[in-house]
Design goal:
Elements lengths: L2 E4 L3 H12 L7 E4 L3 H10 L4 E3 L12 E4 L3 H11 L9 E3 L6 H7 L6 E5 L9 E7 L8 H8 L2 E5 L5 H10 L1 H18 L4 H21 L4 H7 L6 H11 L2 H24 L1
Length: about 270
């Protein structure tokens, strides 16, 4: 599969690294990156790939997929530069938050074989998850987009494009929620007198171990929580404090707020 990436930042680098690790040939991958220092880093990190300073026919020969990996604010300009060359490309994948397929199609001069995805930052270590929506015109070739995204994590398919706003609220922004709770757990350990290094190790291992246990168990999280909550015990006392503050309801509201902001960003970018 021949892939061309527009933008050579962290997420594009993660995908390229994942593709190469899965056996894709370096010669079949090209990256368009305008910043000279970043081009040098890419060429050094991925020997044999094509690195280009600007869009043009030289960056797109025989491409099976073009991946738009630029910031949302840069997407309109990138798409309009790409539009003269895009006609023969079977598929375009965009990973820019908030950029809707209809708007991207408009900027690409009516091109409609578009897949839109929302990855998250654990993709940088191959542990991400992406929500994916393909336009009807893109679905026959959508396997190429799945192949790119699976190079750095799991993929779920969304039936409706609007579902990607929910994906953004849950998993796109989700790593920040996890880090937020890690911060709090680490601080609580330090407040209780534990050394900083031990506090962090306990917090990280507790999250990692609990997630691993949940993934290997057939039980839902509610049952797993009940299993470690003895009546009148230490865990019950802690959960009483969280319940009294309605932490669960506030957390759900926060995720919904992130999803709502994703919709707003889409509206703003479309203008």
């Amino acid at each position: 599969m021949r892939s061309t990436f527009i933008g050579g930042g962290n997420m594009a680098s993660a995908m390229v690294g994942g593709l190469l690790a899965r056996g894709e040939r370096a010669a079949d991958i090209a990256i368009v990156e305008p910043l000279p220092p970043q081009r040098e880093k890419l060429a050094a990190r991925f020997p044999g790939i094509g690195v280009h300073a600007a869009l043009g026919e030289g960056a797109l020969p025989g491409a099976d997929i073009v991946v738009l990996a630029v910031k949302p604010q840069q997407m309109q300009d990138a798409a309009r530069q790409l539009s003269p060359f895009i006609g023969v490309v079977p598929l375009v994948l965009t990973i820019a938050a908030g950029v809707r397929c209809a708007d991207l199609s408009r900027w690409l001069g009516g091109y409609d074989r578009i897949v839109r995805a929302m990855p998250n930052t654990p993709a940088l270590i191959g542990a991400g998850i992406s929500g994916l929506y393909a336009t009807p015109q893109a679905r026959p070739n959508a396997a190429a987009a799945v192949r790119v995204l699976e190079a750095c994590g799991e993929v779920i398919r969304c039936e409706h494009e609007r579902d990607l706003d929910a994906v953004t609220g849950v998993s796109g922004s989700g790593p920040a929620y996890v880090f937020y709770f890690l911060e709090a757990l680490e601080q609580a350990a330090k407040d209780l007198g534990l050394a900083a290094g031990d506090a962090r190790k306990l917090a990280y291992a507790t999250f990692a171990g609990s997630v691993a246990l949940a993934q290997q168990s057939p039980e839902p999280p509610a049952t797993l929580r009940a299993n470690v909550t003895s009546k009148g015990g230490t865990t019950a006392r802690a959960l009483d404090v969280l319940d009294a503050a309605q932490v669960n309801l506030h957390f759900i509201a926060a995720v919904k707020a992130a999803a709502a902001r994703a919709r707003e960003l889409g509206d703003e970018i479309a203008r």
